[in-house]
Specification:
Blueprint (H helix, E strand, L loop, with lengths): L1 E3 L15 E7 L24 H4 L2 H6 L1 H17 L4 H13 L3 E5 L5 H5 L4 E3 L2 E8 L7 E2 L13 H5 L6 E5 L8 H12 L4 E7 L11 H7 L3 E6 L11 E4 L2 H8 L4
Parallel strand pairs: 1-10, 2-3, 2-8, 3-4, 8-9, 9-10
Antiparallel strand pairs: 5-6, 5-7
Helix pairs in contact: 4-9
Bound molecules: nicotinamide-adenine-dinucleotide and zinc ion.
Length: 257
């Protein structure tokens, strides 16, 4: 593993040409410079709440009002935040590579989409989408706050004589990731590529299955890079680890300044 301890050193650059395929994986750290707290940061996202209370199906069943208050506050905060140079660098790389690029993000804050990323798999859902807690209707775009007042109910379920609450379209603890999302990532890695790069940024490497993607990518022959503000749980499994902030490192690393 090569490690660049400071950004003062001459900055490495990932060579990208017309044979290069890039799978990027991002976590909460990529949005830290936009003012959105990371999960394990000192001012953790779940501040004041136990994870099970606000991010599990059991928590929602026990107190849906609290869960909607929590996610309404997350929506408000994310809506006020702006994408930073890290988000924009990944969108610029996609612009350049087209279908040879895929971004898998664990973030739910919509900032990649707002920066212009379209080949995007949101592994843990999206804050601004809502779905029914009972039926399998499609999740839909929803920017509303349900911090106060009545909780939103599914009209389709009501027509069938059932009362069912809407819930945030977020993968909660104890829930499965969407197999279709995992299939897209796997399919991308399985495609024949002369030069395959796996680039992870702002992720602590403890949340599965994202933390294991580096190993899968390596088995498929990828050169692997990690950009993180501190050593991650899985840093040693990457070929290259750059210690630094994604908003400062990614534009230069990807040559899209
Ligand atoms: N922005 C969001 O959407 C958001 C925020 C918090 C939590 N979450 C959810 O909680 C889970 C947390 O897991 P995770 O691994 O993504 O995040 P994490 O909070 O566990 O880890 C974030 C990592 O980013 C690093 N980091 C902090 N600032 C950075 C910066 N400026 N540049 C580079 N790295 C930086 C930290 O050192 C840490 O290792 C996610 O799966 C996500 O679903 C999402
Ligand atoms: Zn329903």
């Amino acid at each position: 593993m090569s490690q660049c301890a400071t950004q003062g050193d001459s900055q490495p650059r990932i060579a990208v040409d017309d044979r290069t395929h890039v799978l990027a994986l991002t976590g909460a750290g990529v949005s830290a410079e936009s003012g959105i707290a990371t999960f394990r940061g000192a001012k953790g996202l779940w501040e004041g709440h136990r994870i099970e209370e606000v991010a599990s199906p059991e928590g929602f069943a026990a107190d849906p009002q609290l869960v909607w208050r929590f996610y309404s506050a997350r929506r408000e905060k994310a809506a006020l935040a702006q994408p930073n140079p890290g988000h924009r660098a990944l969108a610029a790389l996609e612009e350049r590579l087209g279908d040879r690029f895929l971004l898998a993000s664990q973030n739910v804050d919509d900032l990649h989409g707002r920066a212009g990323s379209t080949r995007l798999v949101e592994l843990h859902g999206n804050l601004f989408r809502t779905r029914c807690s009972e039926c399998d209707r499609e999740p839909f775009r929803d920017e509303k706050s349900y911090a106060a007042g009545p909780l939103p109910q599914c009209d389709l379920c009501l027509k069938q004589g059932r009362r069912a609450l809407f819930r945030p379209h977020i993968v909660w603890f104890g829930e499965m990731l969407d197999p279709e999302d995992l299939r897209r990532v796997d399919e991308f890695l399985a495609r024949p590529a002369e030069r395959l790069i796996f680039l992870a940024a702002g992720t602590s490497g403890v949340v599965w299955p994202a933390a294991g993607l580096v190993d899968l990518a390596r088995r498929r022959g990828a050169q692997t890079w990690l950009v993180n503000a501190e050593p991650a749980e899985n840093s040693s499994r990457f070929h290259h680890f750059i210690l630094g902030k994604s908003g400062e490192v990614l534009p230069g690393l990807l040559g899209v300044e």
